[in-house]
Every structure is written in C-alpha cells, then in structure tokens.
Amino acid sequence: MSDVPIALFLSGGVDSAVLGTLMRAVNADRLTALTIGFAEDEFDESEPSRETANFLGIPHRVIRLDPHAIANSMDHAIWAMDQPTVDGLNAYWISRAAREAGFKVALSGQGGDELFGGYGSITWFNRFNKAATFFRPFPRAAGRYLFDHQSLPFRWRKLSYLVGADDPFVAAQMAVRFLFLDPDTQKLLSPHVAHADAPLEAAAHIAQAASNTIGRDGLERIALLDFTAHLCPRLLRDGDAMSMAHSLEVRPVLLDHVLVDSVMSLPAAIRFQRKKLLLDATRDLMPPGLFETLAARPKRTFTFPFERWLSAELRSTMESSLASGLNGASVLNPSAVQKLWRRYLASPASVGWSRIWSIFVLARWCEIMHVGI
User: Under CATH, which number does the domain 6-118+228-296 receive?
Assistant: First the structure.
C-alpha cells in the first residue's frame, strides 16, 4: 500500500512478472513497469518485458542505455557505489530512471534466483565439487602445474583450486566465484599493499560461511552460500547504495522474512526447479497466457554489453581513467594493470570483461575518493 505511484523493475524473467501479477491481484493502481534496454539484441529484454506488461495491463517504459550515457555518468555512478564493486550499474541506472520519472518507491524481484534456484551456476558448483572430490588426494602442486599457466584464460586457471583441496565444496565455490587467483592479485596490487604471506581473505570468508552449512544437502549449501557470498554483500548492498544515491526506496518483496523462512523450510529438491515452484504458486493469479509464456521463455542473465563496450565505445574512457587513476593511486601496480589491459584488448575472452572492469572501478574509485594519494 502506498500513497505515491510505484515503479516495478520489470525484466523479461519470472520474478518481476510474479510481482506484477501479485500487484494486479490486489487491484493495485498507479503502478508503472520500468525496463533497461540496449541496442545490442542479445542483451536487450525490452520485448519480453513489454509482452509481460501487456499481459498484466500495466504501463511500461523502456530506458534505453548506450555506452556514451554510461561514460558521461561514470564518475557519479562510481561515487554512488560507496565502495568498489564489480556490480551495481544496473541498479544505478534503473534507480536514476525511476527517480527522474517521479517515482519515490520501486519494487524489485531480487532474491528470486536464490530462493527458487534460478542460477545456472548451480550446475557448475556441482561439477566442480565432484571434480574437487576426485582430485582431493592429488598434491596441490599438480593443480598449479596443470592449470596455472599465464597463457590460459583465467577461468581455466581457476581449476587449479580443485586439485588437492582441503574442502572440495569450498574449492568449488572459489573456482566459480573468484575473479583472480591469489598470485594474480599479488601482482596487480602495488608492493606495499600486497603481502605474499597474507591469508586470502575471500577464501577465509567462504570457508567460514561454508562451515555453517555442514551437514546440509549439497543444493542447500549452495543456496545458503548464494545468500552470504553474493546476494547480501553484493546485490543488496549495491542496490541499496545506488537507490539511496537517487533518493529512491526499493522494496525487494520476495525477501520478506516470512516468505524466506517459509520457502527455506522446503527441501532444496523442491525449491530448485528453475522457478517452477514460484510459477506454480502464482499460476491461478496470472492473466490467461502469461504462465505459458513465462514457462517457455529461456532463462537470461541480465548484464550490460561490457564485453563489446570496453574495447570499443568505452575504450578511451577506460584508458584515460586507468592512466590517471594508476598514476594517482598507490593501490595498484601500473605495469601489471597495463599488461592485463593489453591482453584484454588482444583477446577479451582470455581475460573476461568483469576482471578488467573490476580493476578499472577500483582505480577510478581510488582517484575519486583520494585513496592512496
């Protein structure tokens, strides 16, 4: 209930469609759906979200983004992060669009993937866990010998975590979640920040979180780690920072504690069926045709077209910011970062956009916040 108009962050997926369905079921009015769109078809969800809005009979607006708009607002977006993060730009732009359209409150479908098994990474966790269990008796040096070669893509090199691991489950989490291997981190940081004998904080964090799930079903452990290693520290934190930067209140309805407690009490095998439980629970509330449409749509992960933009339209922004940020901040090792950037330009797939983007954000954030200067 609200005295002001409400925005619904609508993608082409199930979670936000369910929120729209529930709003429609209680005869909520003054609701408008907002969607971020791109010129790049493979990243654009404008059409499926528009189709959903038409089924629900609610107004729909598409905020079409291009790399030039991203570049022009980059400093404010990085300032709004409050802390360096590889994520958050989607929350920044959808919040900005909602506020500019006059909205003070918005509904978000965050949490649906974690509660109802929407992530495709679950399959990779299971595969890596089995591989780490098989390779556990082997010495760790064998893993480094087989996989930790600079000529290999980073995602392949991370397989070295799976050999000789003390805890296969933790090793699988590290192989999926980490952007850089520890030796790479030591090289990318400046010498006075990097300490070769320092413990790997991220590994310790995941190990601690994993220790709290011992004795549970494998899928259940993965779900709980999604909450503690991804949803809470990244998605919710970033969303909160970005929405507050635009004085917008975002309500992640699916994370209401009553709903979370109820769903988490169910066996993982029932919950983790790619949103089937969520769809079945709201099927009778949906307008004719929406359930079938949602069930037939392939799962898509929302992301910006950074893999294209970073080496094209955003290249000058990246190079300018990296140069000035590396000269001003003493957190990063300039030669190592430039070497990684050149490798990315030569072969984006061998590095991955998220790695070079995370370095850029850190460098620019340090410059904006006068860290290390």
Answer: 3.40.50.620
